[in-house]
From TrEMBL:
GO terms for molecular function: NAD+ poly-ADP-ribosyltransferase activity; NAD+-protein-arginine ADP-ribosyltransferase activity; nucleotidyltransferase activity; toxin activity. It comes from Rotaria sordida. It comes from the Eukaryota. This is NAD(P)(+)--arginine ADP-ribosyltransferase. It is found in: Secreted.
């Protein structure tokens, strides 16, 4: 499993700002659960499995649970493994964040149980107020003009180390680097497949206000 984890661009979750829709989407549909509480990770991914949305998902879940036998920060094994599964940077991450960004809000329904587990894990982690970094290999200066306000509908991966994010960007192309003063960031270093990336997640639905721009030579 470990050798196959980096099949996609293993930094894509730090670099996909341009995939956010440039408009406010309607709220996510919340299926009636009949009082059902937070489930195990294996139970949470069953709707995704039933639709064959992610290849080899059971093995990815088993791998994540194995790596999170001794979770930190007061999380349960399933909560820690939910974050770990996200950090693996496989097609599960792509499908999950893609569903959260899709204008067709019903696309998120198969991920609802996982979303609840994922958010319960983030909510247990202390919020940090710090500068974090996120980037994209594209020029977004027109879209993110000074004073503009944006909603990032998906989970947004950042790093508290600028050199980490900057190293992911293609220096031969136009690029945009975001320096974000966050108030509700969640550090998942203790629950990540790549702890050296010092990853901070901005929860789905984070509101961003652009204070200023600079264009270094």
């Amino acid at each position: 499993m470990a050798s196959g984890v980096r099949g996609l661009n293993d930094r894509q979750r730090f670099l996909d700002v341009n995939e956010e829709p440039d408009k406010l989407l309607s709220p996510l549909p919340m299926p009636v659960t009949g009082g059902k509480g937070i489930q195990s990770l294996r139970e949470c991914v069953k709707p995704v499995l039933n639709l064959n949305l992610v290849e080899d998902l059971l093995n990815k879940v088993a791998y994540s649970l194995e790596k999170c036998k001794h979770p930190k920060d007061g999380l349960t094994q399933d909560q820690s493994a939910a974050l770990y599964l996200y950090s693996l940077q496989t097609s599960f991450y792509t499908r999950y964040n893609g569903a959260l960004r899709d204008e067709d809000r019903t696309k998120a329904v198969p991920f609802y149980d996982y979303y609840k587990l994922f958010m319960s894990a983030l909510n247990k982690l202390p919020s940090i107020q710090d500068n974090v970094w996120r980037g994209v290999t594209a020029n977004l200066s027109d879209q993110y003009s000074s004073g503009s306000i944006h909603i990032w509908h998906a989970a947004s991966s950042c790093s508290d180390q600028v050199h980490v994010t900057d190293a992911f960007l293609d220096k031969k192309k136009h690029r945009t680097l975001f320096n974000i003063k966050c108030y509700n960031g969640k550090t998942i270093k203790n629950h990540s497949h790549y702890p050296d990336e010092s990853e901070t997640i901005l929860p789905p639905g984070t509101c961003i206000r652009v204070k200023s721009q600079s264009n270094p030579a």
